[in-house]
């Protein structure tokens, strides 16, 4: 059996930072409300870069930092819920940008769990015989936000992060461990964005135009995340005879600091092993886990040989956990 290793991490965010105080120009809100409810202090918002631009910058950095040539890649997967186009896929634009002529490329959408679902898919491709892959989570959620709607606009940000993955031998100390994916489609209506209306002359579509933007039952999503993420983490741990006490760090989707605090509590752990950067970026959906992972690796917090639990949750509703020995 082949093993799978994360060889390199990288991230990219737009230059423009929008603080909570700056949002007061556009909606009736305050730093006090946003900070106390979510832990978010600022977010990066794109002015020119598209999702594909951000992902392309991540791809460039990954290859440069790892010293890999683009033509050594077998595949590229981009997890996104805010692609530039329905077609071509963001991953195909990235493939052209880096000239990865030997790689097949496709997008995957599992909203805020997208990067975790991507790890599962990429891991299975590598187990199935591919040798090298690139997985990026990238979003420009600022285009899916109604900037007059304070209950959602304050939560989201733009960015991208990614990893290079390689098939390695079983005795390599870095390995993918278990994964746990779950989808609760019956709760899909609790969090929607980007409705695509029927526009043909034959269609009748009376859906309100505003469904283009985020609509969320915040309380329901909060309840779902704090109830189901701990279960997913425990299932993934049980599958490899581990417990939460064996985990060195938890890299959770960065939606809200209160959700992270509550998950730590549910798991009976102190907050220390739960890494967080939600204060700086807000919720960047599929990008949040790889951005946090890259920051922690570059800071020397996450090191080779540590057991890391990566977990995402969000639209779908979806949940996913991937355990790795980094
Ligand atoms: N500024 C000021 N007041 C606000 C704002 C704002 N930005 N937004 C809402 N309010 C007001 C509301 O209008 C309401 O006022 P009212 O009582 O007069 O009606 C009051 O604040 C309380 O609103 P609630 O929605 O009850 O606030 P709550 O404490 O539930 O917090 C929050 C809202 C932060 C959204 C919370 O429910 C939450 O974190 N939910 C999880 C959502 C989430 O993380 N989603 C993303 C995960 S999925 C994905 O990543 C795509």
Automatic annotation (TrEMBL):
Residues 106-185 form the Beta-ketoacyl-[acyl-carrier-protein] synthase III N-terminal domain. Residues 238-324 form the Beta-ketoacyl-[acyl-carrier-protein] synthase III C-terminal domain. It is found in: Cytoplasm. Pathway: Lipid metabolism; fatty acid biosynthesis. Its main location: cytoplasm. It comes from the Bacteria. GO terms for molecular function: 3-oxoacyl-[acyl-carrier-protein] synthase activity; beta-ketoacyl-acyl-carrier-protein synthase III activity. Residues 254-258 are annotated as: ACP-binding. The active site is at residues 112, 253, 283. InterPro entries: ACP_syn_III_C, ACP_syn_III_N, FabH, Thiolase-like. It catalyses: malonyl-[ACP] + acetyl-CoA + H(+) = 3-oxobutanoyl-[ACP] + CO2 + CoA. GO terms for cellular component: cytoplasm. Its EC number is 2.3.1.180. SUPFAM superfamilies: Thiolase-like (SSF53901). GO terms for biological process: fatty acid biosynthetic process. NCBIfam families: fabH, PRK09352.1. The last Arg residue of the ACP-binding site is essential for the weak association between ACP/AcpP and FabH. Catalyzes the condensation reaction of fatty acid synthesis by the addition to an acyl acceptor of two carbons from malonyl-ACP. Catalyzes the first condensation reaction which initiates fatty acid synthesis and may therefore play a role in governing the total rate of fatty acid production. Possesses both acetoacetyl-ACP synthase and acetyl transacylase activities. Its substrate specificity determines the biosynthesis of branched-chain and/or straight-chain of fatty acids. Belongs to the thiolase-like superfamily. FabH family. Homodimer. This is Beta-ketoacyl-[acyl-carrier-protein] synthase III. The gene is fabH.
């Amino acid at each position: 059996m082949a093993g799978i290793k994360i060889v390199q991490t990288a991230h990219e965010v737009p230059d423009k930072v929008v603080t909570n105080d700056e949002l007061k120009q556009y909606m009736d809100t305050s730093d006090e409300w946003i900070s106390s409810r979510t832990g978010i202090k600022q977010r990066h918002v794109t002015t020119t870069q598209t999702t594909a631009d951000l992902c392309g910058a991540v791809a460039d950095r990954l290859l440069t930092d790892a010293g890999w040539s683009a033509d050594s890649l077998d595949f590229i997967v981009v997890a996104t819920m805010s692609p530039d186009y329905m077609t071509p896929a963001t991953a195909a634009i990235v493939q052209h940008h880096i000239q990865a002529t030997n790689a097949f490329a496709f997008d995957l959408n599992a909203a805020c769990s997208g990067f975790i679902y991507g790890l599962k898919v990429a891991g299975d491709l590598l187990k199935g015989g591919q040798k090298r892959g690139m997985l990026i989570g990238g979003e420009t959620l600022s285009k899916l936000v109604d900037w007059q709607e304070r209950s959602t606009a304050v939560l989201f940000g733009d960015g991208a992060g990614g990893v290079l993955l390689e098939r390695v031998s079983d005795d390599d100390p870095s390995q993918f461990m278990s994964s746990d994916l779950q989808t609760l489609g019956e709760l899909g209506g609790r969090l929607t964005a980007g409705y695509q209306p029927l526009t043909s002359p034959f269609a009748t579509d009376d859906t309100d135009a505003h469904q283009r933007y985020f609509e969320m039952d915040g309380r329901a999503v909060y309840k779902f995340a704090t109830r189901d993420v701990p279960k997913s983490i425990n299932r993934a741990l049980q599958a490899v005879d581990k417990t939460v006490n064996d985990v060195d760090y938890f890299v959770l989707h960065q939606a809200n600091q209160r959700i992270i605090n509550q998950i730590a509590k549910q798991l009976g752990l102190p907050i220390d092993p739960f890494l967080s950067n939600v204060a700086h970026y807000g919720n960047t959906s599929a990008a949040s886990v790889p951005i946090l992972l890259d920051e922690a690796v570059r800071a020397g917090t996450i090191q080779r040989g540590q057991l890391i639990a990566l977990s995402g949750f969000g639209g779908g509703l979806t949940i996913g956990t991937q355990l790795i020995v980094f």
